[in-house]
Specification:
Length: 530
């Protein structure tokens, strides 16, 4: 073993007392476990494999997550060796960095896990912080003992890496969830109509996520002048001034629109999405939904959307299903997932020091969101130009945050940190206005248009400063107020509907149109929420 007076070399690592390790493998294991804690504390969705809502789990996803851990572990290992070659100051710096990193993220992970599990009271978090400070102070008094204790703790708990890998690899994929859905005894089969509708009436329902009525229309119900494309569409539409989404968030609203029932939705422990209407709580597909209704009428159905796992929700009721996940920022490959996990953690860990540390992540995030918005819109236009008899629902990712488009709605400055203020929201609104104009033109350009076009939203601008000081109930009502335009074929001239209209009624209106080609003479008012 090297003596204490030997110059630093790669056989000694500075944050371990001399002669305490027998193999470089132990050093690597501690580095990897430290990297695991570093990445784990902001990668909660990676740990909770039952959260089908956030990740489409595949084996490659697991490799991506572990690739990020191994890469960061290698980076720690190389950095510690490099500092060891700088003499006594380098060794002290490496010891301090190891202690700070490990204690900080061990505390964060412990607090996060126990607090979320209901096993730790809020005051317990403060106790953990106090213990963290005491250990850090002890480092300066008994450096070798503190570092050796942390090292031994890493070795003791490192088998958690195997448990973590096993849990990820055994998490149900979407395909497995779908198989479970079909095998579920409570899920009735959905018979399709014998033949497709040859020349029926098509319907395109476009839901713009987080589209605010208050920021798009004046108090008299007119479109604000900064949205010319929406004004052009409204000039040939039935415009609703008191349309209300059934919920304040997408997760609440879209399931209620699809089922036509007031209720709540969530992800069960087996990865299936449940829906509760009144006292009944069952898997989502036990409830009739718009896609099932139109499929039984012989319509081809299509969904293009973001955020929700539509393939899992709708199953065979959607003939065409393209669903995008907002949380996969850099793409589906293992390398992209690993790079995203590292970039996001560096942004959070180092961004508080200076914003320059965060810009690589924002650059990747902005590029992804721009690409997703453009991809969804391109598929929207393809479906809008096709005069087939189908029910199409589009869930657009804009004007939802991140608010990255400039005030004119052009492509964003990809290096700018996104904000949640009203000015940045207007940039996304202007971009949305341009999309509305292109969708309207694509539908109008059909030679023999039979398609009903509906433009609406799932909730309003949740960060609107005009709602400050309102009660929770008042804010709920404001956020539920959304735009809604119904544009029948060959309509010329506008009509305003001033009665309340709850979007849970939308399904019955659309099926009536599919059956008779007629819209209601009397629009129903809002349903009372249970």
């Amino acid at each position: 073993m090297p003596s204490k007076n030997m110059p630093c070399s790669l056989t000694r690592i500075p944050w371990i007392p001399d002669g305490s390790w027998r193999s470089e493998g132990q050093r690597v294991l501690v580095a990897v476990f430290t990297a695991f804690l570093f990445l784990r504390s902001t990668a909660g969705s990676y740990w909770d494999v039952n959260n089908r809502f956030y990740l489409h789990w595949r084996t490659l996803d697991t490799l991506g997550v572990f690739g990020a851990i191994l890469f960061m572990g290698l980076a720690f290992w190389v950095a510690w060796h490099a500092l060891a070659r700088l003499g006594r100051f380098g060794r002290w710096t490496a010891n301090a960095a190891f202690a700070v990193i490990l204690l900080q993220y061990a505390r964060v992970n412990l607090a996060e896990s126990l607090l979320n599990a209901g096993m730790l009271a809020p005051w317990g978090v403060w106790m953990l912080r106090l213990a963290h400070l005491v250990l850090l102070a002890g480092f300066f008094v008994a450096r070798r003992h503190v570092v050796a204790g942390l090292r031994n703790g890493c070795l003791l708990f490192s088998p958690i890496l195997l448990v973590y890998a096993w849990t990820l690899l055994n998490g149900m994929s979407y395909e497995q969830v779908a198989r479970n859905r079909h095998a579920h005894s409570e899920w009735p089969p959905r018979p399709a109509a014998a033949g497709r509708v040859a020349a029926g009436r098509g319907i395109m329902l476009v839901i713009f996520d987080e589209w605010s009525y208050a920021r798009t229309f004046d108090e008299d119900g007119r479109v604000r002048p900064e949205f010319p494309e929406l004004a052009r569409a409204a000039a040939n539409a039935i415009v609703f001034t008191r349309a209300k989404a059934p919920g304040m968030l997408t997760m609440e609203s879209v399931p209620q629109i699809l089922t036509g029932k007031h209720g709540g939705a969530g992800i069960a422990s087996d990865g299936l999405m449940w829906f509760q209407a009144g006292a009944e709580k069952h898997p989502f597909a036990t409830y009739d939904n718009l896609f099932g209704d139109f499929r039984q009428r012989g319509y081809q159905t299509a969904i293009v959307g973001c955020y929700l796992p539509y393939a899992d929700l709708l199953g065979d009721d959607a003939d065409i299903c393209v669903s995008y996940d907002l949380y996969r920022v850099m793409g589906p490959s293992p390398f992209a997932l690993a790079a995203n996990a590292i970039a996001e953690n560096l942004r959070i860990r180092l961004g508080f020091i200076h914003e320059a540390f965060a810009w690589p992540f924002y650059l990747a995030q902005h590029r992804y969101h721009v690409r997703m918005a453009e991809t969804i819109h391109a598929k929207t236009l393809d479906l809008a130009r096709t005069p087939e008899s189908r029910f199409v629902m589009i869930h657009q990712s804009v004007p939802h945050m991140p608010f990255i488009f400039d005030r004119d709605g052009a492509r964003p400055n990809l290096h700018r940190r996104p904000a949640l203020n009203l000015e940045d929201y207007y940039g996304n609104l202007r971009y949305t206005d341009r999309l509305i104009g292109e969708i309207f033109d694509a539908v109008e350009a059909q030679e023999d248009r039979r398609q009903l076009l509906v433009l609406t939203s799932d909730h309003g601008f949740r960060y609107d400063p005009m709602w400050k000081g309102l009660s929770d109930e008042q804010e709920r009502e404001k956020r539920r107020h959304v735009p809604m335009l119904v544009i029948p074929p060959h309509r010329r001239g506008s009509m305003t509907i001033d009665v309340p209209f709850d979007l849970t009624n939308l399904g019955s209106v659309l099926t009536e149109w599919a059956d008779s080609g007629e819209l209601p003479d009397e629009w129903q008012g809002a349903k009372d929420a249970p």
